[in-house]
Amino acid sequence: MSSQEREEFVRRSKGEGAIYRRKTGAKKGLWVAEYSVGKKRRYFYGKIKKAVADKLRERLSLGEMYLAPEADTIRVDEYLVRWLPTVKGTVKERTWTRHEEVVRLHLKTSIGGIKLLKLNALDIQELYLSKLASGLSPRTVQIIHTTLHKALKQAVRWSLLSKNVAEAVTPPKPQKKEIRVLTTEETKRLLWTARGDRFEALYVLAITTGMRQGELLGLKWDDIDLHKGTLRVSRTLWEGKTTPPKTPKANRSIRLTGMAKEALRTHLERGNGSDWSSRPRAELPRTVTTSRIAPGGRY
What we know:
Blueprint: H1 3-7, E1 18-21, E2 31-37, E3 40-46, H2 49-61, H3 76-87, H4 93-107, H5 121-133, H6 138-157, H7 184-194, H8 200-209, H9 213-217, E4 224-225, E5 230-233, E6 236-238, E7 241-243, E8 252-255, H10 258-269, H11 286-290
Antiparallel strand pairs: 1-2, 2-3, 4-5, 5-8, 6-7
């Protein structure tokens, strides 16, 4: 700052930055606001002193001056790579895998090169629009938003950001798809076709219990009590691994119908005593691994 500029220097309390008028250079005559972010000095300019002062007050109120020293240099991709390992172990494996895929396939390749501190809501909104234009479903883009929002929220806690810009972005709303229900005739035809099949009991349970496909495939004989006529849902199969149900409510007991009990007894009599969860995915019936059938034939 030159001696002339010092003449119009607005003294402020420590930590409140400074405002002064440029007397030389290309920005001569403009008001300059100066403040610190970490160990670096930051500046912005304006024609009206009050407007500059208001903007400086706004930035300081967001806490930018209290950010960590590396906040001014770290890029989005660098941050996300460091964030991912900290999440592992705090969420279900399936959730972490989804976060990792979102970061690797969608975030690093698009907004990864932007400085974390310079990432804004418009960058994120344009990212979502481009993903929709590329053919991704609104639901997939919503998942991208969930991961990014969570990552930026943690960046605020770590003093790398003063606010979560993802909160100002509106993700697309997935369209609710109407579930087609199998007719009584279609259900009968499915059961007739499955008769004698080594997975007949699996089809019958799918139709009579309404269990999710992962729950069906994660069943073990220890979960079934043919004497009481009940079945206990206590795990789900995903990507070849068994995990606990997603929510406490998913841990539940289901009363078996007479048809289901008979199908399970027949399954045992045929020597099919092994659990479905122990079989390779390629051996499982394609109908069950690609759709879900609920009571009354809904899938």
